[in-house]
Design brief:
about 40% helix; about 120 residues; 4-stranded mixed beta sheet; alpha/beta
């Protein structure tokens, strides 16, 4: 009969819809509201990895490949300190920009980065 011919395709469509919903996570429970991400949403990355990555990027950046640039990076609690010398504030700003771009870095401190053009 006509009703049987219409019902069969509807069952197939319903089954496909249910399968898609389950495949897309429709049958899973929602994730818990609490996570282990710090309050400021900065992922926790080991300081040794941060130091290595910041130092690598500083050494590889062509803008900082000029005479008078000597920078060492260290990290504690995801706060990077840049120590050394740069010819001008421009290189200091570039070094800070490079360091803050590293995944996991919360803040960059440049107080120990000496600017040669400002020495008297």
């Amino acid at each position: 009969m006509i009703a049987d011919k219409i019902e069969a395709p509807l069952r197939v469509v319903a089954a496909i819809g249910l399968a898609l919903a389950l495949a897309c996570g429709g049958g899973e429970e929602p994730a818990p509201a609490e996570t282990n991400v710090p309050a400021d949403d900065t992922p926790v990355v080991a300081d040794s990895l941060i130091e290595q990555e910041v130092q690598y990027r500083l050494d590889a950046d062509p803008r900082l490949d000029v005479e008078g640039v000597s920078i060492t990076a260290s990290s504690e609690d995801q706060v990077v300190s840049l120590v050394g010398e740069v010819p001008s504030r421009l290189e200091s700003s570039m070094a800070e920009e490079v360091a803050i771009s590293v995944f996991g870095v919360k803040r960059v401190v440049t107080e120990s980065l000496q600017v040669a053009s400002e020495r008297q």
